[in-house]
Queue: 4 jobs
Job 1
Amino acid sequence: MPASPSPLLRWADLALLLVAIVWGTSYGVAKGALAYYPVLGFLAVRFLLTTALLAPVALRGTTAAQRWGALRKGLPLGALLLSIFVCETYGVAHTPASRAAFLISLCVVFTPVAEWALMGQRPSRAVWMCVAVSLCGALLLAGGWQGGWSGGDALMLAAAVLRALMACATARAARHVSPSAAPGAAPVPVLLLTTVQSAVVGLGTLAMGWALLPQGLPPLPTWAAASGFWWATAYLVLGCTVFALVAQNWALKHTSPSRVGLLTGTEPAWGALFAVAWLGESLGPQGWLGGALMVGAALWMARR
């Protein structure tokens, strides 16, 4: 008889489902904000504000060894996160939303493969079954596949691969103890690791904006002229960045990357529900069935 899941595993699964829900809403919210400001500048504002909010709390009571450990682990993870957000944001701008939803959900398939290759942990048959059901649901949600490949499609596919690598890399960083660490040394706090990642994305997109945009970054929109931009930014900073990154980094200490990929892979389904409820978009019977399969597969795996 299989052992009952631990309470921490259940909380980790719940946290990851909440991450998927808030990330699903982020596409519609971000599109509204991008009407006021360029992609790279918007990402810089979002993640630098996140860093400013997290840093005072994250640094309190930490030791020099913990800060060095956070830098050593957080810089490469932050570079991965930077690549993910740049690929996703530009990809959504250059491909239909249905295709973007399908392609980004392929991280559900890539994560068990990456976990097997990078961490030597072979996923169970139940995980592969849930992956197959979730993939079928994503295809139904996307309405099938029509037309050839575009640059936006390639960016979304790259983001899905990077998400799978990110899940494995974060899990390994959260669990790995450096051989050079002193015996009994305190582990790197999750909040401090998240702060370093946010700083890398914020500073990286800021530098890219000034270097790559022909006229550099324009002045920030004012509250009077673009209050919608700042409301959207506040939601994305507090919900989709601070909460989501902290919750995902914490959950990866208590669950496997494959479960993370499966649970957060329901993001397109929640995004579709948000589009119907908030943005007034329509979703046919095929789309509802696809979303139900994705969410059902994730909930079944979480219950197991």
Job 2
Amino acid sequence: MTTADHTTPQADALPADALHADAVRALESWAGTDAAQERLRDDYLAHLAERPDGLWRSCLPAHVTASALVIDPAAGRVLLTLHPKVGLWLQMGGHCEPGDRSLAAAALREGVEESGIAGLTLLTVAGEGPAPARLDRHQVRCAGKDRPENTHLDVQYIAVAPPGARELISEESLDLRWFGYDELPEPTDDALRRLVAVGRALTA
């Protein structure tokens, strides 16, 4: 079970095949919260088994991405970004990059870059390092508005903000704000609401 312990992944980068191996390991060792999540995990693993390049933006029509929901448990709030392409309030996240040594590292990097909060840490499984909270598969036009939609196989983590954290909006966001657990903004989607509910429970 995921606990409220949190950590910052180490800084040494790994080669691309090691990132692929880490993604497989992270998904194989993760237990979904319900049958739908288990099926998604199996689909992600099948994708990675078929595609050695399955973590990269260039892998079409689908690729694995990583995201982090930034939570301030003491204040009972989450930090959300208004995504310029999707037009929804969402958690921080995006594509894996060559310098990422793990899915957790990719999620943490995205969280730090898009929130401006350097002291984020990820929730962990006791003694085993950061663990996903949920999976979400969705369609997005990340290759450009004139290009066909492709599929993001998103692996979602929970990032805990230090007390008194101050956010700083990035160029990748139209807006960046804190919202109470029961005061989520519109427009958003059910996937974000489910992720907030999981993060709230795990950090209670």
Job 3
Amino acid sequence: MELSTKVAVVTGSGQGLGLAYAKELARRGVAVVINDVDQATADTAVAEIVESGGRAIAVVAPVGSAETAERLVAAAVEEFGRLDVLVTNAGILRDKVLWKMTDEDFDAVIDVHLRGTFTCVRRAVQRFREQGEGGRIICVGSPAGQRGNFGQTNYSAAKAGIVGMVRTWAMELKRAGITVNAVCPVAATAMTETIPFLAPHVESMKRGEPLPAVIRRDVGMGTPEDAAGVVAFLASEAAAEITGQAISVGGDRLALWSHPQLTTTAFHDGGWSADDIATEWAATFDHAVESVGEEFPEEVRAR
């Protein structure tokens, strides 16, 4: 899995999952552009990578605008000569139930997660096409975007939108040799601390205590480092034929999310009136109605 000639931009990589991705890429020889909104955090991340023998620089800017996307790609090219990998990890939370969520709460999350992914991928793809050697796009999604999550209208919408864009881009960029995939990690971070029944496990991990098997396997949650291997894999030639996928990773679990598809179908000559649907629903569709939200083992929820 040779990556020592590669150059990557990892957004939101000053800490947490983004830093874990950046450090794993750097460990494998990738030159990395670190991105964060805080100068001290970004500088610390760069220092950790450099002190470990890696190559890294920092761009301090909020993700969302086309200007930031341009700065990130330009920094990679100016410092390291090219760009091969983009990991769009930057994100924020503004969790509230629907009736309390403000326009500002909604717009802030959509701007960083969804618009930021769009602007950064667009600029990276332009550079990849100029280089003519393909490239790797790795977008960070979430189980919340696949199944929804209480209090996360904005976040769930953004993460669902990211996977939708990934599937579209995989088709559009195939001929250029550019792969596009989504990684949906579950890790003990500041973000998962906001989920009440997971918070105690995050605190346990901070104290150096190992996460129990039910968390690492059944919930699929681990450390940020547990989620980093799949990013390095997708950046490598070993994943050259993998595109358009949503990959779940966390703890001891690696899995593929299915693409939405029709599960139950009925036909009615001349179309469906409301009365027809009411008659058919119980017999044909009731048993196939999908659940919402993540489903966790009872022993986890009971803690």
Job 4
Amino acid sequence: MTEIHRSWQPSAAYLYVLHLDAPSTAWEFLRRNPRYREQWQGSDEDSDWGLSFAEDPSLDARQARPIWCVGQRPVVRLIPHTDPAAQCFDLWAIPGRKSLTHEGQHLWLQGTSGRELVRLTLSPDMRNGEPFAYAMPAGAEHKQYRFTLETALGLLQGTRANTVTALNRPPRSATIHMRALQALDGTLAGATQRDIAVVLFGDERVAEQWNPDSELRAQVRYLVQRGRELMEGGYRDLLN
């Protein structure tokens, strides 16, 4: 049993999943994949997981900063600007946890605005403390960049209140993903579906409603199946 699955029963430990964006949720399922974990530990297997480079599976989405090479939203680039009135780039003024990662072709800046993980690329000649501008490809459909630009503004200019997702409650899909993740951990830890039902829905409800053809059992079966599907490659659908 890995460290991920030892403490799968306290539901409060999974509440952070409600506030993850899609790429971070995808990471939570991928990092539980036994083959991915074996490869990280030194297996000779060479598989395409959709990452620009491997990330440590012991790190959950609050700590890890995986860079996906599939299903990314349009990316805004930060470039130097000659107008002295432009905002100056200040890495240390960005609130919360942030990271700079070079994956061979691009330097990526990652941080959090609201509950969204923001990913930007930096021009090679960007300098801390100097004016900058946001750049997107000429001819690009501006509507596709609206969300990316809003989250970038939220990260770098403190306008998170203007971002759409910062105002919304977690969607229903987030609750499903949270429960599927917990059900998956229970399964990988050797728990039965009834054990999982008790943890997710309580002893009393299970005692009253659990039987081979019950809706409750079907719901647990779905969560277990959904968790496995996402772990075994379905996480890529979240990236799209």
